[in-house]
């Protein structure tokens, strides 16, 4: 099976879009509920938990897409080409991205950037751990 992989730039733009859209959406909800506009809540563990849940659950429910990836016309897929499962997204985001990132003091993020830029299959550390790749939709 031939896969069409997405570039580092496409993946970066999708991640930035996700972060900003989710931040603004939650800030709007916060404003509606409290009457105050603030993004101070992003500095705590609450934001991390919401963002990780979003990145773990949304691709499973939305066939490999999160909002940013949908806009960029790319999606997360399993290496066998099927839709991702909860196991794939948990391994990818929680273990491969966050836990490995914390344990390596961010070095894994730098290594992952080089992997996406230079590997033929464009897979980063978290893709390898999760059994996924990001490809054209």
From TrEMBL:
Membrane-topology annotation of the record: Multi-pass membrane protein
Principal location listed in the UniProt entry: membrane
Keyword Flavoprotein part of the UniProt annotation: no
Segments traversing the membrane: 12-37, 49-68, 95-118
Keyword Methyltransferase: no
Leader sequence residues: none
Keywords on record: Cell membrane, Membrane, Transmembrane, Transmembrane helix
GO CC annotations on file: plasma membrane
Listed name of the protein: RDD domain-containing protein
